[in-house]
Design goal:
By secondary structure, this protein is an alpha/beta fold. It has two domains: 6-76, Transcription elongation factor, GreA/GreB, N-terminal domain (Helix Hairpins, Orthogonal Bundle), CATH 1.10.287; 90-157, Transcription elongation factor, GreA/GreB, C-terminal domain (Chitinase A, domain 3). Helix content is 42%, strand content 25%. The protein is built from four helices and seven strands, in the order βααβββαβαββ. The protein has helices at residues 10-39, 48-73, 108-111, 124-129, and strands at 6-8, 74-76, 90-96, 99-105, 117-119, 137-141, 147-157. The chain has a five-stranded mixed beta sheet. A two-stranded parallel ribbon has the order 1-2. It is elongated, with a radius of gyration of 21 Å.
């Protein structure tokens, strides 16, 4: 496995597959129709609808590429064990610089519509807490060179 492999629950994988299918099918057809309709209006230089549709088409194609690449490297599995050890796919509550913070250790794609902050396992914080148990303390070096203390208060499967 490469370091870019991301763990996903079956639910998250299915949700992303459905989004990809929607974008590759109905969304592409709809945007193509909007572009064609805007083209028929005439002069493209001053056609705001045409330019907006082309911009949206670019966003859709970028998301299709992003999802395709992400899903190729995703590993689908069961949620991590609820054993208090920090792993990918867990909601972690920790004291960081004296403030309590709750976040998901994993990927934004895993989080879906959740408003949780998300930290990658490859981030400095993620690397520092991965494998730590509830009650353990550790620290990591921030990009500015400062050492940041972290205490794990809770770790539950997402």
């Amino acid at each position: 496995m490469t370091e870019n492999v991301t763990w996903l629950t079956q639910e998250a994988y299915d949700r992303l597959q459905a989004e990809l299918a929607q974008l590759e099918g109905p969304a592409r057809v709809e945007i193509a129709k909007r572009i064609e309709a805007a083209r028929e209006e005439g002069d493209l230089k001053e056609n705001g609808g045409y330019h907006a549709a082309k911009e949206e088409q670019g966003k859709i194609e970028a998301r299709i590429r992003e999802l395709g690449a992400f899903l190729k490297t995703a590993v689908v599995g069961a949620a991590p064990a609820d054993d208090g050890i920090v792993k990918s796919g867990m909601v972690v509550t920790a004291t960081i610089l004296g403030d309590e913070s709750t976040f998901l250790l994993g990927s934004r794609e895993m989080a879906g519509e959740s408003d949780l902050d998300v930290y990658s396992e490859q981030s400095p914080l993620g690397k520092a807490i991965l494998g730590k148990s509830v009650g353990e303390s550790t620290s990591y070096t921030a990009p500015n060179g400062k050492s940041i203390a972290v205490e794990i208060l809770a770790a539950k499967p997402y």
